[in-house]
Amino acid sequence: MEESSSSFFPEPNAAEAAAPHVEVDGGQEDEHDPESNSLQQPLLKRSPTLTASHYAMVGAKVSHIESLDYEINENDLFKHDWRSRSSNEVLQYIFLKWTLAFLVGLLTGVTASLINLAIENIAGFKMLYLARLVKDQRRFCSSGSCRYITGFAYLAGVNLALTTVAATLCVMFAPTAAGPGIPEIKAYLNGVDTPNMFGASTLIVKIIGSIGSVSAGLDLGKEGPLVHIGSCFASLLGQGGSKKYRLDWKWLRYFKNDRDRRDLITCGASSGVCAAFRSPVGGVLFALEEVATWWRSALLWRTFFSTAVVVVVLRGFIEYCNSGRCGLFGRGGLILFDVSEVAVSYHINDLLPVAVVGVIGGLLGSLYNYVLHKVLRLYSLINERGRVAKLLLSLGVSIFTSICLYCLPFLVPCTPCDPSLGAVCPTPEGSGNFKQFNCPNGYYNDLASLLHATNDDAVRNVFSTSTPNEFRAISLLIFFALYCVLGLVTFGIAVPSGLFLPIILMGSAYGRLLALALKSYVHIDQGLYAVLGAAALMSGSMRMTVSLCVIFLELTNNLLLLPITMFVLLIAKTVGDSFNPSIYEIILELKGLPFLEAKTEPWMRNLTVGELAAAKPSVVNLRGVEKVSRVVEVLKQTSHNGFPVVDQGGPSPMGTPANTTEIHGLVLRAHLVAVLRKKWFLKERRRTADWEVREKFTSVDLAEKGHKVGQVLITEEEMNMYIDLHPFTNTTPYTVVESMSVAKAVVLFRQVGLRHLLIIPKYQGAGISPVVGILTRQDLIAHNILNAFPHLANKKGEKGRNSHS
Amino acid sequence: MEESSSSFFPEPNAAEAAAPHVEVDGGQEDEHDPESNSLQQPLLKRSPTLTASHYAMVGAKVSHIESLDYEINENDLFKHDWRSRSSNEVLQYIFLKWTLAFLVGLLTGVTASLINLAIENIAGFKMLYLARLVKDQRRFCSSGSCRYITGFAYLAGVNLALTTVAATLCVMFAPTAAGPGIPEIKAYLNGVDTPNMFGASTLIVKIIGSIGSVSAGLDLGKEGPLVHIGSCFASLLGQGGSKKYRLDWKWLRYFKNDRDRRDLITCGASSGVCAAFRSPVGGVLFALEEVATWWRSALLWRTFFSTAVVVVVLRGFIEYCNSGRCGLFGRGGLILFDVSEVAVSYHINDLLPVAVVGVIGGLLGSLYNYVLHKVLRLYSLINERGRVAKLLLSLGVSIFTSICLYCLPFLVPCTPCDPSLGAVCPTPEGSGNFKQFNCPNGYYNDLASLLHATNDDAVRNVFSTSTPNEFRAISLLIFFALYCVLGLVTFGIAVPSGLFLPIILMGSAYGRLLALALKSYVHIDQGLYAVLGAAALMSGSMRMTVSLCVIFLELTNNLLLLPITMFVLLIAKTVGDSFNPSIYEIILELKGLPFLEAKTEPWMRNLTVGELAAAKPSVVNLRGVEKVSRVVEVLKQTSHNGFPVVDQGGPSPMGTPANTTEIHGLVLRAHLVAVLRKKWFLKERRRTADWEVREKFTSVDLAEKGHKVGQVLITEEEMNMYIDLHPFTNTTPYTVVESMSVAKAVVLFRQVGLRHLLIIPKYQGAGISPVVGILTRQDLIAHNILNAFPHLANKKGEKGRNSHS
């Protein structure tokens, strides 16, 4: 994140001015950020080392990030393809679009069910066996301490083994599978393609790693990973399989564009949330509120369809497993944490304690964000030392977790079973809500009941209603403190990990604690306070409102709680927002992903795009019919991804004067490379006819990505030939006049989903270049602009907050 | 809707070419559509008679509709104001924004509660008294027929009186209060300001009229009107009171812009839905999915806050009234149609009958849309005959409704009370779910139970669960047929009316009927089938998905029904969409509101904005420092609302060559009129300094609307003076190059929320005008373009559907 502040305004020296195409990087263009629009030095002080892996936050793994093209590239080939598309093909496209949305839902639903099945069985049997081991272990040792030590060795060993599987897979095969993946999905939908994020290996590692890490009893959830898994399925389906072993199915050719993949990945993300919380509407809203940058109602409908498929699949699995055919999985119903049986009645004087829950939730949430930020920075120092360091860190956290989970219950006294609940008090097998652990028969250890269970069961226990005396304050306090520490130290390790469940665990504990502390003022059930606490902390950390509200409604099935949930969420978000941004924004910034925010800074109104472009080296234009050597030179010596195509005078259909210049459009690097690879060269400088190019190219050929100009061999003879760029040029790039304020340019760039924005001059006349600059995503990131124009930062300080938030 | 197809391409005759500023409308500029960009004739065959009133659909009331300016007008005054805004003022603004959102919620909640209270009491006591009148009316007549006739006379009389109040108010004082108002709100948020839509008189008439018409037993709901009421409150609060008696509160000056009013009205619309269905999350989603055109997450949060306030207010009222302090109001809980007590269990073989509900819902919904369209066209012929005709139509519908409601129950036989439900069978006072009407004691008339109740109670009756034999098939059939007819004939009359409840009534009846018909195949409760039927018909007619799903969840409080509700909604929407557009889109088109759709037509890619602009008369440019006489002439002779400001050569800060032209920006008609009114004229042609204009103007002065150039008196001497337009010019208008395709221009126009879009030439050079055209909303409406370029329409037919939907 450290950036030197030098060399932004290039010293205008003669050598540079005379030779604008000085080669600086010796052909290693791929090492550079390809969004860079500069020939000599990085423009606008962008960080050239954008990191892609979750835990390598200070640059262990350098890679370039290419922007996605969500705009439609209207070149001649596209237009021909568009016109010639038969209504049959259009129907195929629509059918396929819905089929893919269906498949995304189906695969996500099935995978989520299988993951749940695996986790519930592995973690459940692990805990059952532990209980049995501790309770009667006559065979090996008879003394108490021996039993407990064996028990601990068993628990720590199993947890360590599971963690090792998860961490090793992540470290060796798919570093991008670590962490939740939600920030990267958010960035993808904003137009930033993090490499290796949605591949088949990531998917497989994520699934297995998620099972391992959650079963290992680490303080992390499967929710974030499920969102990522859904998106991976979507991305793979959109490509027609993995990139390496791709099925070249003819129908899929219309999906080889960033727009359709974006839509599919949005479906995948909603499906993932839906599968995680069994919350179909919450899933759609989560994608809408938190993940997606662009939204339209057609997409609302499609994501809704995907989540409907997911929920039908989940319901089918649960119904099938309900009769015990799947081991420990499927015993509950469709609703994860049902608290609907308690009657909710509250009055005006309940609002104050509820407001306290919200305020504390906001404070804790922002504090959590702050500390987690520090911890992640520290971890990245460890993680960048290499694979072994990453692995050791994960294993260390696993051992620490095992020690805490196992030893802390010894600190609390045993609780006698409530005779009115007799039937559910610890059963001999150790299943059920109450764990006996070190207590005599007829007693249970309330902290062990929380800690010696799967995370889901722990939440269910804390949410349990009409049980005012089930948990002691001291146990809840220990539980809360433990999960605060675990939540901070676990998130950054190299295993797939979600943020939702750790925060719900923390929040539910503090909500229930608060209810115990305010016992005399509180008329609402403690279990509901736990729900409110979880919602408040969630909102205080993630800063979502409507989607959280619906997710909690669908998690707990208590509609009457909705008004106070809304109240708590609003308070917690307001309190949290006054301290720091949301946890996902913090992670995005830590990773250095060039995410384009929706809100513009006030000082952006005081800067024009002309001023911004003047601070950059000038743009490289190509002519409509260009020499091959010039194209190769430009491609090799710059790292631009788009070049304006400008025609000088020449023959024009409207018979304009000869001294005019014409903006023909913008041609992409990928398309130029495609032309060079196919060697579609002309002997003389002339414009080609439509049929000529269509004999050689289809619009699908141009959609291929990833080839580099260095790989193309061109002979000396070919170098002197010409290329007609007109058929490949996007004739309708978006433009702004140079007097446009940056604030408005950002609105245009983000709302329309651009990759390049051309700047045209305010003054018209002979001899003025028709394109004075190109803006890319990097140029419009507030952080980058402030580095280039530090005086704006001061003004920013004076103004305080953005008044158009 | 009739439009002549002539005169689109003006014949280039010499007179016109020589005198481009021929006066055509003799100063009656306000009679013309001010969005028109033409000097001589309407461009692009737009309809010059946009109608504003709900029932005057074929042009009874001609009025012009001005587009709203959702873009920030960055002129010098704004920029100065922006820079000089202290952080204290920014805080004031933020505080005020939230206060207004709070007040919108509070007022909507209180008003909704009072409306409910009035309706439940008026309609409830009306029905109670009717039951008593029919049951024992010894005093006046003893024979059966006499009793029934008196009963009918009483019912018809009361209904007629209530309808008269509602219709008279609507016809005399606020024609815009008739109908639901939702299409106009949708249009407002799209940028179309229907006149007199959000005024104080509309608000008051809407409240009283809504009470009257719903109490009168007409087949309409208070839901649509409540949305309109919420929006009216928002609009009035944003202006600081009614336009006529406006409080000029200093803090409100920052709200005198279309953007902030738009946000407030979005809050108002969500509050209205929330108040109507007691559905806070559904309200937010309704605004998001159906009403709003632009959306950002800050707004999501603010609307969520408003609906939270509404729901707290509603809950407070219900709690207060629960003990009987408000007459018949408040006996139920917060949930309107609670069906949560029934256990939902369904299997794979239940999916088929549920799918049938969806398919029939989609068919019926689109059929309803189709027939309602025809009825509304017919009604508009009646309504345009004048106020008396409107009034008579309303009264006729009222009498017809009374006859049906009263007489139809005689057709069905009496049902003996089920002894297991003994306690609730008809009570002597006639309250409760079962109505005795013409039946002996111990029996009830099931059709009367549905018809002699408020609409809400009727829905509750049809939704009632675990009562498989409560209603006969014949009664449900009559009920369904009756409400199909009433739903069609009632909607277009001149009273405030909502569409939700009529559709729910119809849908619930057919759902329950279907469950009766498929008795042997159906394992889900009949009441739940009624809910599904209502959801399906709603989706089939209104084509919403997520918001309807949440509204139904919050209406019925049955989370386990959610997956099949989603299933039904998706099927119904798919079926409906294959026949016609949603009912709101049909009404928008009927009213001729220039609504800009999100989806672009495929043929828009084959047309450039340059071709579109070439079909229009040329744009009128102003110079940076312009003669007063020229400004007055242009304002009087054109009806444009925006003029490009172009400087020729002249002094420029960057020392460009003298033969250049400079696009300075765009100046608005309203601002030119403001300058003329303040008479800020210069003796000589010069550019002014910043302080000069700020002595005379603030940015708030420019925000005033509605003044006309004809009202300004300018002396001969003043005519020869100059105006410096630079300080008033928006220096950052959005522009497109003339080669841009119309599809992309529409995306830009809509996504960024524009009013004017400048077209700049593709060719650059001396002597080329820097602005070749202006596009407005009217130019980009698909319908208008097709009128101008009929050959595109043919292609459209070939292509079938838009493949990017």
UniProtKB/TrEMBL annotation, chains A, B:
<keyword id="KW-0812">Transmembrane</keyword>
<dbReference type="InterPro" id="IPR000644">
    <property type="entry name" value="CBS_dom"/>
</dbReference>
<feature type="transmembrane region" description="Helical">
    <location>
        <begin position="197"/>
        <end position="218"/>
    </location>
</feature>
<comment type="similarity">
    <text>Belongs to the chloride channel (TC 2.A.49) family.</text>
</comment>
<keyword id="KW-1133">Transmembrane helix</keyword>
<feature type="transmembrane region" description="Helical">
    <location>
        <begin position="559"/>
        <end position="576"/>
    </location>
</feature>
<protein>
    <recommendedName>
        <fullName>Chloride channel protein</fullName>
    </recommendedName>
</protein>
<keyword id="KW-0813">Transport</keyword>
<keyword id="KW-0868">Chloride</keyword>
<feature type="transmembrane region" description="Helical">
    <location>
        <begin position="527"/>
        <end position="553"/>
    </location>
</feature>
<feature type="transmembrane region" description="Helical">
    <location>
        <begin position="152"/>
        <end position="177"/>
    </location>
</feature>
<feature type="transmembrane region" description="Helical">
    <location>
        <begin position="299"/>
        <end position="317"/>
    </location>
</feature>
<dbReference type="InterPro" id="IPR014743">
    <property type="entry name" value="Cl-channel_core"/>
</dbReference>
<dbReference type="Pfam" id="PF00654">
    <property type="entry name" value="Voltage_CLC"/>
</dbReference>
<keyword id="KW-0851">Voltage-gated channel</keyword>
<dbReference type="InterPro" id="IPR051280">
    <property type="entry name" value="Cl-channel/antiporter"/>
</dbReference>
<dbReference type="Pfam" id="PF00571">
    <property type="entry name" value="CBS"/>
</dbReference>
<dbReference type="GO" id="GO:0034707">
    <property type="term" value="C:chloride channel complex"/>
</dbReference>
<dbReference type="InterPro" id="IPR002251">
    <property type="entry name" value="Cl_channel_pln"/>
</dbReference>
<keyword id="KW-0677">Repeat</keyword>
<keyword id="KW-0407">Ion channel</keyword>
<dbReference type="GO" id="GO:0009671">
    <property type="term" value="F:nitrate:proton symporter activity"/>
</dbReference>
<keyword id="KW-0869">Chloride channel</keyword>
<feature type="transmembrane region" description="Helical">
    <location>
        <begin position="473"/>
        <end position="506"/>
    </location>
</feature>
<keyword id="KW-0406">Ion transport</keyword>
<feature type="compositionally biased region" description="Low complexity">
    <location>
        <begin position="1"/>
        <end position="20"/>
    </location>
</feature>
<keyword id="KW-0472">Membrane</keyword>
<feature type="transmembrane region" description="Helical">
    <location>
        <begin position="391"/>
        <end position="412"/>
    </location>
</feature>
<dbReference type="InterPro" id="IPR046342">
    <property type="entry name" value="CBS_dom_sf"/>
</dbReference>
<keyword id="KW-0129">CBS domain</keyword>
<dbReference type="GO" id="GO:0005247">
    <property type="term" value="F:voltage-gated chloride channel activity"/>
</dbReference>
<feature type="domain" description="CBS">
    <location>
        <begin position="729"/>
        <end position="794"/>
    </location>
</feature>
<feature type="transmembrane region" description="Helical">
    <location>
        <begin position="354"/>
        <end position="371"/>
    </location>
</feature>
<feature type="region of interest" description="Disordered">
    <location>
        <begin position="1"/>
        <end position="43"/>
    </location>
</feature>
<dbReference type="InterPro" id="IPR001807">
    <property type="entry name" value="ClC"/>
</dbReference>
<dbReference type="GO" id="GO:0009705">
    <property type="term" value="C:plant-type vacuole membrane"/>
</dbReference>
